[in-house]
Write a structure and sequence with these properties.
Layout (H helix, E strand, L loop, with lengths): L11 E3 L2 H10 L7 E5 L4 E10 L4 E11 L6 E6 L3 H13 L4 E6 L10 H15 L6 E2 L3 E2 H6 L6 E5 L8 H5 L7 E5 L7 H9 L3 E4 L8 H16 L2
Parallel strand pairs: 5-6, 5-10, 6-7, 6-8, 9-10, 9-11
Antiparallel strand pairs: 1-4, 2-3, 3-4
Helix pairs in contact: 2-3, 2-7
Bound molecules: S-adenosylmethionine.
S-adenosylmethionine binds next to helix 7.
GO molecular function: rRNA (uridine-N3-)-methyltransferase activity
GO cellular component, one term: cytoplasm
Function: Specifically methylates the N3 position of the uracil ring of uridine 1498 (m3U1498) in 16S rRNA. Acts on the fully assembled 30S ribosomal subunit.
């Protein structure tokens, strides 16, 4: 990971083989071309292609282009769903500015297929495409009960509860404090009655409705994050 100290104006940066091949062979970069580099954490820098070698491309840093302005501290706790919808959820959550994505194992999820490395690659691609300067952290799947047992009370949970009589999310969030928050969305089969009872008993959790219809988990995750961002995001 390049640090801001590596990226001072005039510094030369040698790219690794994969990045060099992409720039040289795929993008046909030539010496003098201008591009932007970001390290997924601190910001974005303007750079020029200094040399396109057979095995390595060298860049020369021009100056910092944008300094990091990290979005609000909101996590997505997403119950494991089928691979396609899960990948969609990770991509859209990255676009919607989440800080961390926590895959969650609940009573009605099947956790045997989750490839976290693939989800992390999707998070990077979506972050590049959406122009954010940081990349959401994708954590290893964790059991809901374990997560809640060790829950940081300082982080409120927006619990998307399709089965209950929760108030509309926008109404509930209207008088809630800003970040840090977590948005929790259940699996295709929903939360079990026991899980719902545990979640509803938590002081740090607020149950919300996303409307009168039952949404697929990917639709629910995107809607919930959008409503959260419009109410409490920045
Ligand atoms: N158990 C549901 C059923 O009746 O078929 C399906 C669960 S839904 C596919 C997946 C998750 O999306 C739910 O656990 C909930 O977190 C969220 N969700 C879906 N529709 C919702 C709604 N209208 N209000 C709040 N959350 C919703």
């Amino acid at each position: 990971l390049f640090t801001p100290q590596d990226l001072i104006a005039g510094a030369e940066l040698q790219l690794d083989e994969g990045q060099s091949r992409y720039l040289g062979a795929v993008m046909r970069a030539e010496a003098g071309d201008e591009l932007r580099v970001f390290n997924g954490r601190d910001g974005e820098w303007r750079a020029l292609v200094a040399k396109v070698g057979k095995r390595a491309v060298t860049l020369q840093i021009v100056d910092p282009a944008r300094v990091q302005s990290q979005g609000p501290d909101v996590d997505l706790l997403i119950a494991l769903v089928k691979r396609g919808p899960l990948e969609t959820i990770v991509e859209k959550a990255a676009e919607l500015g989440v800080r961390r994505i926590r895959p969650v194992i609940t009573e009605r999820t099947n956790a045997d297929h989750t490839r976290v490395d693939r989800l992390r690659a999707i998070a990077v691609e979506a972050s590049e495409q959406t122009g954010r300067l940081d990349v959401p952290e994708v954590l290893e799947p964790a059991k809901l009960d374990k997560l809640l047992d060790a829950w940081d009370e300082g982080r409120r949970i927006m619990f998307c509860d399709e089965a209950g009589d929760a108030q509309p999310a926008a109404v509930v969030l209207a008088d809630q404090p800003p970040a840090p928050w977590a948005v929790l969305v259940g699996p295709e089969g929903g939360f079990s009655p026991r899980e719902r009872e545990v979640l509803r008993s938590l002081d740090s959790a607020v149950a919300v409705s996303l409307g009168p219809r039952i949404l697929r988990a990917d639709t629910a995750a995107i809607s919930a994050l959008t409503i959260w961002q419009s109410a409490l995001g920045d």
